[in-house]
Amino acid sequence: MNWSLIGWIFIGVSAILLALFTFLFRSGKGYPIRKTEAVEAYKGSQVASIEEGRARQVLLGESFWTYVYPGLGLQALTIVPKLLDLETAVDGGMSLSGGDGSLAVFARQIVDGRYQDGFSTKLSPIGVRTTLPGVTPLSLTAGLLSELSLRPYGSLALLGHYGPAALLLAETVIDKGGRVLGTAGTLAAQAALFPSIQNLLIGEMTYMLPGLFKKSTGHQAAWLTEDILRVLLILGLIVGAILKMIGVL
Amino acid sequence: MKKVLIPMIALLVGLVTLAGYFLPTQLGPTLTIIIGAGILLMSAAGLIGIGYLLHMHIMKLVHKERGGFFSLIVLLFFLVALIAGLVLPPGSAFYRDLILGVQIPIEAALLGVLAVVLLVASLKLIRTRGWTPLSIGFLSSALLSFVFDLGLLHAEPGTLSAELLDFLRGLPWLGARGIILGMALGGLIVGLRVLFMIDRPYGEE
Amino acid sequence: MIICPECGTENPPDSERCLNCNALLTERALEEHIEEQPDHEESLDLLSQGDHDLPDLLHALKQDGELPGVEGEQEDLSSEDVVASFSLSELEEIQPDEETEEPGESPVVKPDQMPEWLQRIRQRAKEETDSIGEITQKIQAAQESLVEDKSSQRHEDYSSFLENLGETFPTNDLEAVPIKEVVKDKDHALEEDQEPDWLERIRKAEGKLGENEDAANAGNRDGDSLLQWLVALEDGTLKPPTADVEQIEESLQLEDSTQELPGYDDSSFGQAATQEIHVVEPGLQAPPLLEVSKEEQSQADQLSATIADETAVRPIHRRRRAKAPWVLRLILGVILITVLSFGLFTGAPVKSNLTTLKPHQQGLLSWAEALSPDASVLVIFDYQAGFADEITLIAQPVLDLIIKPGREIAILTSSPSGMLLADRLLNEVIGTEDIILRDLGFVPSASLIAYSLASPVTSEIFPLELEAGDFDGVLILSDTFEDAVVWIEQFSARIPSIPVNCLVTAQAGPLLAPYWESGQITGMVSGISEAHQLEAVMGESTLVAYRWRAYRFGIFMMIAMLVIGATIADEGKREDEGWGGA
Q: A208 — phi, psi (to 5°)?
């Protein structure tokens, strides 16, 4: 028995719980949704931006996959379909930006997937744009900064993996009267954004985001699984600390 | 079929890579192929990213959008850098100074602007967030870290003061570890959701 | 008694104007009124002026065939032509004094004396049930349009009612269904006062009936009984139905008299643009009921409330934006630059009195000093160009210790400009010394390369043709915690015997402390403050001292901003943004 084996057990329990709850929620009632005001405010800003004719920007992050936060890029892509409603597709004011070729390609595929049902970009060239302003973190910030400065944006969503330089993007949008929704990027980014924007989801709250936009049984099962694992982790930490204190560990 | 095949391939590759930790000798050749393919894929993604960037600026020029002049500058300097990199030998001092002479000042200036913005943000912390437990914790942690970083407080190693200073210095980072643990948990669930095909973000509902 | 054509009020016989609504009552008064107001139109007067001059029967004739006495094309006949087509002799055959209380009665005209057109009309009336005149048709249409919101069902009921009337009461027997208990016997003629103007005009347009012609003579024409009933309806002598229409259909029985129901205001009947048609049925007292469930009522109430809320006057909410936020940034930026410049360019460098280093700093120093003369070190450059100066300040004293002649230095980077930055840094450090440099190049994925380096080589085909065992130590130069962790975890997990050291920026240092505490890294120096301490202990004087003073001034400013912001805060949230999140 070693620590890596405990880690494997943890992963196994997660997989079993996730599968079990997904099956249960499909046949019965689901898990209560925790309403987040940040998400509600962002949804309102989307509507307001469309009505006011302002553009909207979504940053998918600097990279698709990182070693420390492996799920952030994928999480950002998971949120994108929830944002692509009919009004957004027709309005044509939304841009999806990423700092990684993988992110840009996947985002483009998701956007095109929305148009597979008989929609042609030749008929309506406007739509959701996918851009790649820069290939490195600071060049991404510089490129996006110039884009945000050209016209007033109604909203900015910071998703995925990004650094503290995202604060510059947030302040630019806020100065022009837009609203910002920030989800957990890196720790430094969270620390930089915390004093400036109100609608900030810290830590694992970002993984709840797709379900908060549009719930599904899979998301609800994931929430419940995460809650159970969180409790187990807390208990494990307390037990470990106590054992360390008494000299067992 | 495609919906099942791609996640199955991803799962298989992940399991083989994981097994390579436990059976490095037996799975060495397989791992070599997987790693090589992975590096190739990442490199291709990087090239696609550059291509996407160029496409974006070219479209801006073609459609005569706002900021097209700056896109023209970007494209021109990209061509210059590309041609110079291909023509000049590796390790050329001229090429190094040409690139870094532009990149370092620009990025340093951006970080300088970030510093000023952070300064203003620290001024508006309470105004933005209000007096909540989280904002009070953030404020006290930041003040503690800055004070310790000034280097004015010293203590002899092994003394109680040193222990206390180390404890206070490490206190803000306890929350950071908690956040990292939570994000690791969330990342685990996201990965499992995609592998089990519970979540398919690529245009399928 | 004279019944007012406007409001239906009974008035004394000698009154010229109605006591209730002051409308003209007498024929002469009506005529005078008509002359005064030649353009006056009644609500039910849907006929054009030309049509007014043309009786409905004449219209019917016009539709059926040629008019007698008119030669040539009859399509564009004017009313005068039509009237002229009638011979007075034919009309004189009609006995003007004939009573018309029973409108259905055919005029007492001998068949051989009856004009041909009249014969055709009567024949048609007998054969066709819908042979009511055009005027009557238009009256019907106008009355239907006057029904409010009960159009379809009521119209159907009304039409069926009319049909039933026609069936139940043949024209001979049909009497204008009085609303009031005014029973008219057969000998009682309809008073001319009750006739509307349009009817008067029609009869005048005939021209041959004369002024003294009893209006009832018009009833000699077929359908006049129904016409009279409709006229009475128009005059408001009929009362609205007070029961469900279905009940009306079921219990449809016309009697000679009906009860006058209270509450029916027919003052504007015949004059207003719309009018309410009510059919009174005996015995039906309750008004028609509309059944609404509670849910429907609540939904209707909610809809009403929503509509009222949307149309309610509200102050326009304007987002409260900070006025010229760039001014504050500009001022603070100028202050910051001034303060930092003061720290950089004035005064003597700060000398540290430290003689001992922190454990993680000492660990790095010890490792660097313990390297063999022919050691091979892997140096990983994983930072961005913006942090180049800070990394240079931190790494230079350590690299001075490591890079000695005879040692092999391998350079690897996963940052796009990493090779250029490595070249720049090493040129400043190495100078002209003979150093063996292995340029391993740029790799796009640090994790994959780290994994491959840390795994044993079992094949000749390998990405970099080396393995971690080739090195005596690894030195990681990084600006972020995340980039450093990739290398640390792979090397420490796969080959824990290789020492791993870090030279990182101040933002990465605290997060890497646990790795030092767990023994995964041998040593670490993070930020300008620790670099200054390192230099102080090593006895070297570089530009770090000046930078360290400016750095301290910057930290003082940050502390001041935090304290001032907490002190002068308005204890509120920014109202132009939503409140939410963490």
A: -85, -10
